[in-house]
Amino acid sequence: MRLSAKVLVVGGGPSGSIAARTLAENGVDVVLLEKNLSFIKPCGGGIPYSAFDELTIPKLTIKKEVKSIRIVSPTGERVDINLKSGSLAIIQRGDFDAALRRQAEQKGAKVIQGEFTKIINDKRYYKIQANIDDRKSEIVTGYIIAADGINSRVRNALKIKPSRTIFTVSEHIKEIQTEICEFWFASSHAPNFYSWVFPSLDGISTGTGCPDPRKVNDLFEIFKKRKSINQEGQKRVYRIPIWQGNLYNKGNILFAGDSAGQVLPLAYEGIYNAMKAGEFAARAILEGKADNYKKLWKARFQKRFILMDKLGNYFLKDDASIEKLVSLHKSPDIQEASERLWLSKETSKQSLLNYIKLFGKFLH
Ligand SMILES: Cc1cc2nc3c(=O)[nH]c(=O)nc-3n(C[C@H](O)[C@H](O)[C@H](O)COP(=O)(O)OP(=O)(O)OC[C@H]3O[C@@H](n4cnc5c(N)ncnc54)[C@H](O)[C@@H]3O)c2cc1C
Question: pLDDT at residue 341 above 80?
Answer without folding.
Answer: no
